[in-house]
């Protein structure tokens, strides 16, 4: 395979890496924690499913984040996946806002670990941190999922090209859209909350 002049590769410093990463669309989550280390939370896109046996997620957290010390001390966290209408709370948890103001922007409950679960999240994963690895500026937190709850009925919130977008849900009663998805659309009002559904608990 050959690479043309206009498509030539560039050296990868942090800036080129971020620019490249900005092209990826990702789900948006609030990572929350509470316990002896205090209540804290931050916005995260670096979240990934690792295994279903046992159910395990990974979360990458910058060690410079104000939530880092509370997360490690508490050893527990909740991954709250955001939907349409959550862009303001995503911005608040994205940094430089006092923790009380961040949490005042949402309504919360607890699922077992003690970490706050956002009541209208698309889904909340209540977790214990079982392992962590330092990689560069971040720690990779491996999290055993002890309970899952889903309440929000909104379209998914995505982060792509440094802005929030939404992805329409599949029609009710079907697992796939009737037509091919026509792409993400602009953010509008959030639909009313549906009933809380506890999907699974440890
Ligand atoms: N994984 C992360 O730590 C991460 C992800 C997204 C945004 N952020 C932070 O949020 C702020 C706004 O970011 P933006 O998306 O508007 O523009 P940006 O240019 O800082 O980031 C573009 C993309 O690069 C990646 N990225 C950014 N900072 C990173 C880091 N420190 N480590 C690993 N990957 C990183 C993310 O995928 C991000 O969407 C910045 O301060 C950024 O550092 C951090
Ligand atoms: C959309 C989006 C996505 C992410 C972030 C930001 C935004 C806006 N941030 C940055 C993180 O939210 C921010 O650094 C923390 O809130 C720490 O800020 P404070 O130290 O609390 O002010 C972030 N940080 C991190 O450690 N891991 C991640 O996956 C992400 N993802």
From TrEMBL:
It is an enzyme of class 1 (oxidoreductase). HAMAP family: RutF. This is FMN reductase (NADH) RutF. NCBIfam families: RutF. The keyword Membrane does not apply. Pfam families: Flavin_Reduct. Its EC number is 1.5.1.42. The gene is rutF. It comes from Methylorubrum thiocyanatum. It catalyses: FMNH2 + NAD(+) = FMN + NADH + 2 H(+). InterPro entries: Flavin_Rdtase-like_dom (IPR002563), NADH-dep_flavin_reductase (IPR050268), RutF (IPR019917), Split_barrel_FMN-bd (IPR012349). GO terms for molecular function: FMN binding; FMN reductase (NADH) activity; riboflavin reductase (NADPH) activity. Keywords: Flavoprotein, FMN, NAD, Oxidoreductase. Residues 168-191 have a biased composition (Low complexity). Catalyzes the reduction of FMN to FMNH2 which is used to reduce pyrimidine by RutA via the Rut pathway. Residues 21-166 form the Flavin reductase like domain. One of its GO terms (biological process) is nitrogen utilization. Residues 168-202 are annotated as: Disordered. Belongs to the non-flavoprotein flavin reductase family. RutF subfamily.
